[in-house]
Sequence to fold (852 residues):
Amino acid sequence: MVFMRGYCEANSSISRTWVDEGISPCFYFTLVPSVLLSISFFLGTIHCIFYQKYGTPMEPKFIPRSRLYGFQQAVSILLLVQFVGGVVWRAAAGGELPGYVVLYGCFSALGWAWAVALLRVERRRALLMDRTRGHSVALLLFWAVAFSAENLAFVSWYSPHWWWGLEDRLQQVHFALWLMRYIGTGLLFFIGLKAPGLPRKPYILLINEDERDVEDSGQSLLGQTEENQSTWQGFSKKVRVLLPYMWPRGNIFLQLLVLFCLTLLAVERVINVFVPIYYKNIVNELTDGSSWRSLSTTVCIYVLLKFLQGGGAGASGFVSNLRSFLWIRVQQFTNRVVQVRLFSHLHSLSLRWHLGRKTGDVLRSIDRGTSSINSLLSYIVFSIIPTMADIAISIIYFITYFNAWFGLIIFTCMALYLTLTIIITEWRTKYRRDMNLQDNNAKSKAVDSLLNFETVKYYNAEDYEVGRFEDAILKYQVSEWKTQASLAFLNQTQNLVIGSGLLAGSLLCAYFVTEGKFQIGDFVLFGTYIIQLYTPLNWFGTYYRMIQNSFIDMESMFKLFEEDEEVKDEVNAGSLQYKRGTVEFENVYFSYVNGKEILRDVSFTVLPGQTCALVGPSGSGKSTIMRLLFRFYDVQGGSISIDGQDISKVKQRSLRAHIGVVPQDTVLFNDTIRDNIRYGRISASDQEVEEAALAADIHDKIMTFPEGYDTQVGERGLKLSGGEKQRVAIARTILKAPQIILLDEATSALDTQTERNIQASLAKVCVNRTTVVVAHRLSTIIGADQILVISDGRIAERGRHEELLAKGGLYGDMWQRQQQAHDSDSSSDTEAKDLKSEKLQPPSTSSGPHDH
Fold:
């Protein structure tokens, strides 16, 4: 039989908050549901009014499907049922049913029902003016208070009025219900931070992106970036990229070093616990009048522990310094592996990507990305994980050896500190990302300007370039100011939380000392331990910011890693088996951009040892044929084969080993002439390099330089003339000794005499080799075995020089125009020479009639 004698149990009152070493159940189960119901109804009602007045129903396609959202709803409904079921069970069990139990069940059920309704409203309607993402403040605050309220039960650990003793069936059921609430509210709070059932972007942004082409949304150098995107988005993917660098595979010595460093890390945690304990013992022994032998032993142990620990947790002690020293080798391994892998990946990307890149941005991304990986590993393994371990150990220690109030103070302070740190840091992420973008822009402008030094001088544009660079720096400094200002705000917030927690704990500890429950050493222990704990906690915000900044710095590098290789070897691709050197294009189609074909149905064959010349107007597709043959790109239709082997089915390395290229614009490394020539075959000896230079007709010129073959050519070879650079390129190709030669307008930018000299050198290179030439001056390919006239991506004419002239088609017109231009240039040169000779001729002297 159920009966109600009053609102609280017998001998209890709602005005008494503390009863028998714990919170009064009547007070607790009245306060908690009242606060929760007030939050859900007050804030929730305001929230619903705003959604109804300013919101709009979301289109189903913009609502993400999420199992986590279904789980959120299920847990919320389960908790609602639990509150009602608890009251029903209490009533059915018989005995006294206090009024606060009924109020607790009813108020809690109403509050959670309203929370479920809010959850559904958020999923179906969106505020167009909302620039944030995630759940509303009402829901997050409701879940946070509910979870904190369940944690508050730990304060009553020693109270007989609560369920911790599990002495009878009633306490066991209450404990099971509390455990369900604790787990459920905790899950809802942490899942709520992710907001799985809501769009990741503001709804108006989703609508705009759906209505316009993706290209209009703005691309960065290395891919699209979202200003409001969290750095933790895609966290699991980023961690998977980092995992291979955390464990040095294949190196047993480094693996043992990693294990030993982790062992030292665990030793540090133990030392951090015993340092304040021994400090407490020293104070107690001094006040109790202990013997000198006992006191000196305690002091020596304390000093030894302090030596091992250092100036405090996070400071440099013996163990910390030893661990940092041993970790250097592991860090260097990680740094080397990341840089080498990224450098190799960049070289595997297609010519299309390299033509569109910005060198300054790429270099900055590589520098920041590789250094950020080391920072991430160091912060996560040696800062974040130890700090979290220290916090957990301290809460357990204070609850066990002091009382639950101290554990609650530390837990509340830590939770508030970490939550505010994460929220504020997430908010200021956009400023850091924009600062990186402006930094990239400034460095990119500087690199481009310096690389084009000559062009700047040609047009007296020094002031313009300096002005552009200064504007870029000013934009960077604006973003930098926002970043630093938001950092100062975060630091002040952290200091306020830490100071409040230290004040509350110190006052409570001092009170217990005055009451005689604690010794003086206990107060010293609390002060020492809490300050020791706050030291890494104070740095925790820095660690979190640094980890987040490292993720931001890594974003560009991750995008570099995500760039796909456009030209890939097939899985079972074999090496090219070179036989005679027959090159065949069969119905080849190709386009750089969809919808704009560069080559259409191109078919031709170059027999072994023959020379095939490609001529035609600019943009007709001549150089594209060369790039396809070298397999910078793969064809979209048809095939290219060498000796009957489709080049897309063989390994790129084996294909390119048989092909030598002399480009139109030769770019040299900023190294010696000897090393630039040796680049054709790295293993070549000095004698072979000089023989190649002799064959390219540049040896004598090199010997006139003061340093000979050790002469530095400057960046991109700018210290050499155009003809000298071309001959170095020819020497490279001779040293490589390929069976197939590609000449891409190799002499178009040279004067007539230099062109003739280089043509003679090229003729030596091409003897008995299959050769494909892109020619601008038709006079250089008169002796070609086959001439292809390319027009609008098709082969308009083909044949030998005489045959094409006889046809009188495109080739004939090109030949005639070049001859007329040549004749005009020749007559101009003759007139200039005559005029010069007249100016140089001395005036004639004649005698007049009166001269005697």
